[in-house]
Write a structure and sequence with these properties.
By secondary structure, this protein is of the alpha+beta class. It is 34% helix and 15% strand. The protein has a 3-stranded mixed β-sheet with strand order 1-3-2.
């Protein structure tokens, strides 16, 4: 499937599901390009996808697909190519390490209750 057509279809799917997508140029320095295509975020309680207009259409498609895979798209109408791409992104994202939603006990809880006494020889 043509990358531009896929991106346009992903934008249409996002619009039909009510997911707002904004494209902005992410600030970069003269010596360093921002290596981030965008992603899903929450602004004032509303989900929103921010995409880097400096990223390639393929990179923006991946970022948008990753955001869409977090939504329920069972009833969404889409082409077989778009459905296959979203399914593949859903499978590949499953290996990512995402932050836990709840805090863990921390280092203090990992200390042993019984300290070993130093041995003198």
């Amino acid at each position: 499937m043509d990358p531009s057509r896929l991106f346009d279809e992903l934008l249409a799917i996002a619009a039909r599901t009510g997911l707002e997508v904004r494209t902005r140029a992410f600030q970069s320095t003269a010596s360093r390009k921002v290596p981030f295509a965008g992603g899903l975020c929450k602004v004032l309680g509303q989900q929103l996808v921010l995409l880097n207009s400096n990223a390639s259409v393929v990179e923006r498609s991946v970022a948008l697909a990753d955001a869409l895979t977090s939504l329920d798209l069972n009833g969404a109408t889409m082409s077989a190519g778009a459905r296959r791409f979203l399914a593949e992104r859903g499978r590949s994202r499953s290996g990512l390490v995402e932050p836990d939603s709840a805090p863990k006990p921390g280092l203090a809880k990992t200390l042993s209750l019984h300290k070993k006494k130093p041995q003198h020889r």
